[in-house]
Every structure is written in structure tokens, then in C-alpha cells.
Design brief:
With 81 residues, the protein is an alpha+beta fold. The protein has one domain (2-78): Roll (Flavocytochrome B2, Chain A, domain 1). 22% of the residues lie in helices and 17% in strands. The protein has a 4-stranded antiparallel β-sheet with strand order 1-2-3-4. A hairpin with an 8-residue loop joins strand 3 and strand 4 (77-78). It is globular and about 30 Å long. The two termini are 21 Å apart.
């Protein structure tokens, strides 16, 4: 989680967590349908609740997965998609 928290701005990669997956959103922030402010506000944090409140069907996010959070002892690993 510390690694994700350090990526809380576009310049740092803008990582967010949704359902235990870590996404790098820096290249998507300007294309986000709800505007860039939404992603910037949740950068470096778990955005699961916010995401499921307004989720629009589609698989757009899959291309941005970079890791999966396993548990507190092993905070994350590189995604193998």
C-alpha cells in the first residue's frame, strides 16, 4: 500500500486501487469520462467504493492493471495478464 500511496499524482504515475487491483491511471486521466479531477482526488488510494457507485459497463480498466494486492504481509506483486 505504501508503494501505491507514493504514486498519488499524475507525475508520480497516479496509481489507484479497485477491488485489490492496482491501476496506473496517469495516461488515462485526461480521457476519464467523469473528468480528471475524479482520478486525481483518489490517486494513491483505494477507490473501490467510489468506482462501484458510478461504474459504467465496459472493460476499459483492464489495460491499466499493473499489480494485485495479495494481503498486508505481501502488499503487492506485478500483474501477469
Amino acid at each position: 500500500m505504501k508503494d501505491v500511496a507514493e504514486h498519488n499524482t499524475v507525475d508520480n504515475g497516479l496509481y489507484i486501487i479497485i477491488d485489490s487491483n492496482v491501476y496506473s491511471m496517469a495516461s488515462f486521466v485526461d480521457d476519464h469520462p467523469g473528468g480528471s479531477k475524479i482520478l486525481k482526488r483518489v490517486g494513491g488510494k483505494d477507490a473501490t467504493q467510489q468506482f462501484w457507485k458510478v461504474r459504467i459497463p465496459g472493460g476499459t480498466l483492464l489495460q491499466y492493471v499493473i499489480a494485485r494486492i495479495l494481503d498486508d504481509r505481501k502488499p503487492w506483486r506485478e500483474a501477469s495478464l
